[in-house]
Structures are given as structure tokens and as C-alpha cells.
Amino acid sequence: MExxxxxxxxxxxxxxxxxxxDEVAKYIANLFEGYDNVETEIIPSYPSRSNxxxxxxxxxxxxxxxxxxxxxxxxxxxxxxxxxxxGVVEDGKMYGRGTADMKxxxxxxxxxxxxxxxxxxxxPGEIWFIGTVGEEMGMQGALDLVEGGYLKDVDAIITxxxxxxxxxxxxxxxxxxxxxxxxHAEGKAAHSSMPEIGVNAITAIADFIQKVQKKFDEVTxxxxxxxxxxxxxxxxxxxxxxxxxxxxxxxxxxxxxxxxTVPEFGSEQSIGIxxxxxxxxxxxxxxxKLSLELIQVLDxxxxxxxxxxxRALKEAxxxxxxxxxxxxxxxxxxxxxxxxxxxxxxxxxxxxTKEAHVVxxxxxxxxxxxxxxxFKDTAIKFLKM
Length: 385
Hints:
Blueprint: H1 6-13, H2 21-31, E1 38-46, E2 49-57, E3 60-70, E4 88-90, E5 93-95, H3 99-118, E6 124-132, H4 140-147, E7 156-159, E8 164-165, E9 168-175, E10 177-186, E11 190-191, H5 201-221, E12 234-242, E13 248-249, E14 252-261, H6 267-282, E15 289-298, E16 301-302, H7 308-316, E17 322-327, H8 333-336, E18 344-347, E19 362-364, H9 365-384
Parallel strand pairs: 3-6, 3-7, 7-18, 9-17
Antiparallel strand pairs: 1-2, 2-6, 4-5, 5-19, 8-9, 9-16, 10-14, 10-15, 11-13, 12-14
Helix pairs in contact: 1-3, 3-9, 5-6, 7-9
């Protein structure tokens, strides 16, 4: 147990709160210095925010198996019993921001490679560790790695988010997409006693909301657009603001919303509903002009439910209640699904799902250490299949 504490604690002590992953990436790369059969590469996404790839080479050519975890965490917030960036161990648990989501998963992936090096394990192909930036806000690191071609040779990826819930160690093979957007209205201010000389921005936003929600309600109810694992595409208007004074015609307003998509009605079709409603509004010269801001676009992802990766994991995790499930939320599956048509993907990692982002977040150390063994065995089994 003690062997596997130090790197996890070091990772927790990096306060990589939506930033600062560059230092974490360098720390990880330094862990693998001096090994002849290891290559490391640091790939920037933003200033002070870098991804890292560690490649452990086998004795002969073969497939590429990867463990990919994000290096950022969310803000700690107030009310902690334990210091959020120290990694305090008590009663078989380590407490700290990111212990569950997901630096325990990251550390498990790192230790899996280090153990295989120490054990001089023979295997064909390559085993990679991938550390990505910005997962908590936009998943830009994973996007940069996919679009930059850095992952084009990868055959399988496990993403070690905390997936233990309801007595199961879940393996996630599918996830909904997420489109976060804002629609802005530009009108003309006037005194409320003379509204005819103004152009009301709130009215345009209100009409837009009604028309768009009606369209999405139709999509949600349409059986042709329903996914048997993920359900239906949904739209929620969540924030609205407009005007500055009660006796003035508002010249500016905006609404923000979130669309959760399924493959049968995905990003392009959903954005099309927004764009069509805006186009129809803007054709009327008497109305406030609308414009669309896409804040985040994550595609729905549905990988194979039965493949070599899943079989290898189930064999390696023989002592766990592994169940293959969909996720109605989002994760980096949304990025990795675009690597290739035949890439094998699964989200599986240590930690309780409910511990993500909470005060006094923790990881059960027994579960974390078990995951290191499971990752090692999964990698070897997959590469030999």
C-alpha cells in the first residue's frame, strides 16, 4: 500500500484548478526519465496548460493500449475538514480535491506503467499514459490531441473517471453530448412611454425561446431520434438576462442553454435548430437581431459495448462487479470517439462517482491499489488478444 501513496499525494498537492497542468505534466514526464524503452512528449494547449504522453514500448510491434486521465480539478470551495491540497490519509482513505476526480485514476495509470517497467514485463505493442488539460471546462486538451493526430495509432483507451456506484464498478461505453450556448439580442433603447421608437431585445429572446423549445420538445418525443442506451436529445434554457431599467425599452438581452444530445440527433442537427430560428427572426427588420455564441460543443459518443478492451477488463477485474453502462452526462469519450471508427473506448476508474466535486472528497486506498493491478492486467491481456 505505502508504495503507491507518494505519487498520488504529489498529484493532489498540485493545485491544478482549471489551470496549471503544465507543472503536473512535467512532473509526470520526469518520473519516466532514464528508461530506454520509454518516450515522453509534452504538448501545450494553452500557456501553463500542457498535455503529456508517456509511451512504454514492448518487445515487438503490436497494438497500442492507453490510459488517459485529465490533470485539472475543480475549485475546492469552503468547509473542508481536511486541507484540500495536502493528501491527508485517515482510516484507509486519502482526502483532497481531485482524489476521486480523477488524480487517483491518473496515479493508477502512472503506477501501472512504472510497475510494468520494474517487473520487466514482456508484451507486444505499446502501453501509453495520456494526461490531458481542461477536462472540467471544455475538454480542450483531449480535442487538441485528437485533432493534432497524436492519438491516431491508439487502438484502445481507458479513461479512469470514478465509476463506482450502486454496488457496481461500472464501465462506461457511451455518453451524451453537451452543447452550451448563448443567444444574444441587439435592439434599440427607448423610453417605455414610447416603445414604438425602440426595438425590444427581450421580446425577441422570448419568442426565440418559445419557438426553439417547441422544436426540441418534438425531437425529444420523436421515437426515430431516441437511443436505446442514452435516451433522447434534450434542451434546457437555464439563464436569461436583459434590460437595465424598468422604464426603458431594453436594447440588449441574452439567454443561455444546454442541449444534451444523442447520436440519433447530434450536435449538427441541434445547432441547426438554433441557427434556423435565428435566421427566421433576423429576416424581420423590425425585430432585434439575434446572434449565436457556441460556448462548448461535445458530441455524443457510443463505443462498442462488447469488444477486446471490455473482455480484457472483465478478466482483469474478476473480483469486481463490473457492469457496462451508458452515461447520461459527458466525459472525454466525446473527444476520443473521433480518433477512428474502430478505436475501443471505456471509462473505468477508482472512486465513488458521488465523490466528484464534493467537499472532503476522498478515495478509498484499497480500491485505488486494486485499480493499478487491474490496469496492468487489462493492458497485457488486450495487447495479447
